[in-house]
Amino acid sequence: MPFGSGFLPPRAAARSRAGLLVLALASLSEPAAGQAVDLPFGLIVSEQAQTSFTLVGAGARAAGMGGAFTALADDATAASFNPAGLAQLLVPEASAVVDVSRHRDEYRNFYSYDQVPVLRLTDSTVEFDHSAFNFASVTVPFELFSKRFAVEISTQRLVDFTYDGTRQFEEVDAAGNPLFLLEQSSFQSGSIRLYSGSVAFQPTERTLLGVTVNRWDGDWDMASTNSEESVVAGSEKEAFTYSQTNDLTGWNVDLGLLLRYPAFNVGVRYRTPFDADYGFSASLETNVETPLTPLPPTTTTLHWPGTLNVGLAIKPSDTLLVAADWGRTNWSKMLFDVPGVGHVNFFDLKPPGETNAGTSDDWHVGAEVLFFPGKTVVPVRAGWSREPQPATDAVTGDRIVQTGFSVGSGVKSGWWALDASLRYSTAKAQVSRFLEAEEIASGSLRATSQGELSRKAWAAYVSLIVQIPAGSPPARALHEIFVGPARPEP
Questions:
Q1: What pLDDT is attached to residue 58?
Q2: How many distinct structural domains can be found in the chain?
Q3: From the centroid of its chain, how far is CA 31?
Q4: Confidence grade of residue 36 (pLDDT, cut at 50, 70, 90)
Q5: How far does Cα 224 stand from its chain's mean position?
Q6: Per-residue DSSP letters for 309-359?
Q7: Helix%, strand%, coil% for the chain, nearest 5
Q8: How far apart are CA 392 and CA 148, in angstroms?
Q9: Residue 289: inside a domain, yes or no?
Q10: Half-sphere exposure for 408 (CA within 13 Å, toward CB)
Q11: Phi-psi category of 253—alpha, beta or left, where left has phi over 0 and alpha has psi -120 to 50?
């Protein structure tokens, strides 16, 4: 089918050359007949699923406040936002966080521009549910040389790759008659987890400092199947299936600062960049003639860029908190080396000077009001967030930006606190997609289908934080394990 660039809509016409999106790693031109080309691993799946890489902390309380917690960080989830905040804790604490989510992608007003005349695609929707264990920690505060210290061990699911859905389209002519049936199944599972140890201390009345050492451990699978079938009876279905397994390990350090004043707090957390060991292996199955061959099992180094978070928390009264966070990551620096090719960006496999990945600035704003019925504390929370994806669409130039709204509440009574929050997020963008099996199998990946993606997600978070009374047998045991024998009082 000839590529009808003259029929692109106005927005895409300006990018018609870029719309070819030739991303084969071994060459930027159409492969010659019979020439073997290494498959651009991960591209097919990552372009379809668009995993969120916004690196936010954990906890239902923070989620209810839109994720604005860098300048607060005053409970057992503190290390995931700002390790300096751990020095505020007075007694040992343990925490556990779980979440449940529903994801919905709506594909509307899509057109295929790889032939003349242009063909319209019917709408399609993907929806799936997911639940997971999000975070757990144990924190032990203590005094040393008349200064307040705290140590914590924790684990967090930082990046979730889960995606599970099938898109079904009919390619129709101008009269609405179906010509081809297109189907694309995208599946991802796994995550990147952190296993962390933190230390915080309070050198002055207003200043708290903290450091976290993180062990990154990633393990995820991806698979994508594209098929195309003519409505004509007896025609052969064309299919292309690609799958890939991935693993990642590495170490980095988070540095935290918290300044506390009567009317406000200022918090800063810097997640240092690091080089991770990244390995992958791929396979493909197709009944379409193709020059593509999967790269052999490969181990390389992935450079993960640093992230800076700055937060401000204002305390108008003893019962009201208002907080805001800003975070920045330069995803254009997320690079790894492909043998025989050189450094490419993780998100679009382009060289550093050509990548569509760039700087992402995420924002989180929230508030908390406390009520005191009887001997319990009941908080009411609300928040807003804005989280851009790392890269823009290579064809349309649009970036998927998630805008979130959250509410939350809980109850604190004595030694325990139970919090829950609900977050709704949405995004709209003009996107391009690889939908036809033959366009992937050609060896020159051309994103010839374009339209509107409307993304909606609902997530519920539940946190349990347990305080362990100072001097109790469990508190003494934790102090013995993480700090050492308690000094006898004079």
A1: 92
A2: 1
A3: 34
A4: very low
A5: 19
A6: EEEEEEEEETTEEEEEEEEEEEGGG-EEEETTTEEEETTT---TTT-SB-E
A7: 10, 60, 30
A8: 46
A9: yes
A10: 32
A11: beta
CATH of the domain at 293: 2.40.160.60
User: Measured between alpha carbons, how far is 60 from 461 in angstroms, rounded to an integer?
Assistant: 5
- DSSP annotation of 28: S
Distance CA 82, CA 93 (A): 16
Q: In angstroms, rounded to a whole number, what is the distance separating the alpha carbons of residues 91 and 143?
A: 11
Q: Do 170 and 178 contact (CB within 8 A), yes or no?
A: yes
Residue 90: exposure state from Cβ atoms within 10 A (0-12, 13-18, ≥19) = exposed
Whether residue 117 has a cis bond before it, omega within 30° of 0: yes
CA angle 47, 50, 53 (to 5 degrees): 130
Give 488's DSSP letter: P
Name the β-bridge partners of 136.
Answer: 96, 155
Find, among 190, 193, 186, 248, the residue nearest to 221 by Cα: 190
Find the domain containing 156 and state its range: 5-482
Residue where the block lists tokens 């004079």: 490
Residue 487 lies in a domain: no
DSSP 3-state of 44: helix
What is the Cα–Cα distance from 57 to 366, expressed in whole angstroms?
14
Q: If you search the block for the tokens 């100072």, which residue do you land on? A: 470
CA distances from 68 to 29, 58, 363, 384 (A): 46, 11, 8, 9
Q: Is residue 405 part of a domain?
A: yes
User: For residues 82 and 152, what is the distance between their CA atoms, to the nearest angstrom?
Assistant: 12
Tell me the two tokens of residue 249: 């390990």
Examine residue 490 and state whether it is found in any structural domain, yes or no: no
Tell me how far CA of residue 396 lies from CA of 105, 183, 220, 349, in angstroms: 18, 22, 28, 18
Q: How many residues does the chain have?
A: 490
Residues 405-432 have pLDDT tens digits of 999 999 999 899 999 999 999 999 999 8
Question: How much is the pTM?
Answer: 0.86
Q: Which helix (H) or strand (E) holds 430?
A: strand 416-433
Percent of the chain residues past pLDDT 90, beyond the cut: 59
452 token code pair:
């509107």
